[in-house]
What we know:
Bound molecules: zinc ion
Order of helices and strands: EEHHHHH
Structural class: mainly alpha
Number of strands: 2
Amino acid sequence: MWICNRCQTANKEGYTQCVECSAPRNARRFGAGRPVVAPSVQAASPERRMQQPEQAPQDAPPPPVSRRVVEPPVLPPRKPVGGFIRLVGILLAALLPIITILVAVLRYDVISPVIISLFFKPPAPEVLGYVAYGVMTFAAALLVMAPGLALVALSRLMGLARRR
Ligand SMILES: [Zn+2]
């Protein structure tokens, strides 16, 4: 004799089903009549829940910073060489004309007869002599600046060549 789990009806031992509700003998109280309970739908749901948080990957942009750090140490050793040549060129371009003018002024009595004699014959008017001497002195000063300016230009060319 056994009691039905569904309706609590007492059944005889020979019966495999409940007389009252026809439920099987081993049926449970809820979901009776379907002992084979295999809900395949519930097995798939936990896997879907696990895949959702894997989305939204975050990519930070740090690489451009590392590239700029490498460049600065290359520049410092270049400047001293070009800077030295430029400094010498500026000094020459400034000092040589000054020396030339000083010599032309201080040694006027020695140099002026030679310069004036290049343009005029010995009995030359003094005004033209001074003008000729001044023009020649100015021309000489410009010519003496050439090597210094050449060094300055050279330093610039070296700087442009190294930047490329
Ligand atoms: Zn029953």
